[in-house]
Amino acid sequence: MKYRNFPMVPRVVFGHGSFLQLGEILMPKRKSSEAPFIFFIDDVFEGQPLITEVPLLFNDQIIFISSEEEPKTAQVDVLVAKIKESFTEMPSGIVGIGGGTLLDVAKAVAIMLTNPGSAAEYQGWDLVKKPAIYHVGIPTISGTGAEVSRTTVLMGPEKKLGINSDHTPFDQVLLDPKLTHGVPKEQWFYTGMDCYIHCIESLNGTYLNAFSQSYGEKALDLCHEVYLGDISKEESRDKLMMASWHGGMSIAYSQVGIAHAMSYGLSYLLGVKHGIGNCLVFQYLEEFYPEGVKVFKQMQEKHQIKLPTGICAGLSEEQFDIMIQVSFGLVPLWENALGDNWKEIMTYDRLLQLFKKI
Ligand SMILES: [Fe+2]
């Protein structure tokens, strides 16, 4: 048995209003007045008070990015080319401010500034050769675990797959629950359920070990408190932020499972966003995760979340086939969920029937 030697985020700040410390944190990382910090910020914050608190100096730049769609390899390539054209020196660092999309774009650009070619060439496991430039992640919505993960999930020309590498994790994360104030209810639910599903898939997987279990159980408890408990909004924001962190840590040393494998298929073919895609799938997985799905439905009920229906209605056989191929391509997820003989358990037809329910 060869055990994996994982990198972790080496520095993290947690606290209400900690965003105001960002300038102080970045200062020692500034290489020169010509080497800017590039801030990728979710465009929902354009014109919002948060922008005035971004610690811009010298030729630092803010680039607003839409999180309407999942991040793409081509988008990363364009951003990298733009940065290289605009500045004579390599930036001092990249700061991603937003949800999973923004965090993933920040990680990918930081990697691609030092590695040649297109981001698509690095989708997979351990293909990145050179360390990324300094990069900082600041989540403004909780649940994806992108702030701790060693991957950056991108939609490529051929596949939706992460750049999984030791160079991917952030050098610094800033967790300020205050930044999650304005998140709309649906998004809060779908993204939080990403975390909840990380826990269920990790805790019920064959890859489970004491490391993953300890984080997964804590994250699951926190999700129960946030989505079923009776706690204040402020406490809930703090707890969901820590649930996301622990859920991410849990899957770092195990793996996700069926909902994620299928959600990747949905997202690849139809552009369904990760959080809602997971929910759309997970509601039909009671045979695999009975307790998890039961509690999920209680949470959905409590917050009166109605999931869209008929997403896969009217798809052609070819289209179902694409989703199934993308989904089956994620072998470690299936192995974790169902064990070595997963192919016998999850046949093509069984998966097709599941997709048809959505
Ligand atoms: Fe996820």
UniProtKB/TrEMBL annotation:
Residue ranges annotated for the Alcohol dehydrogenase iron-type/glycerol dehydrogenase GldA domain, each copy included: 11-177
- What protein am I looking at? Alcohol dehydrogenase, class IV
Q: What organism does the record attribute this protein to?
A: Cellulophaga baltica
The organism that produces this protein has a lineage beginning with: Bacteria, Pseudomonadati, Bacteroidota, Flavobacteriia, Flavobacteriales
Q: Which PANTHER family match?
A: 3-DEOXY-ALPHA-D-MANNO-OCTULOSONATE 8-OXIDASE (PTHR11496:SF104), ALCOHOL DEHYDROGENASE (PTHR11496)
What keywords sit in the KW lines?
Answer: Oxidoreductase
Pfam families, alphabetically? Answer: ADH_Fe_C, Fe-ADH
Q: Where is the Fe-containing alcohol dehydrogenase-like C-terminal domain?
A: 190-294
Q: Name one GO molecular function term.
A: alcohol dehydrogenase (NAD+) activity
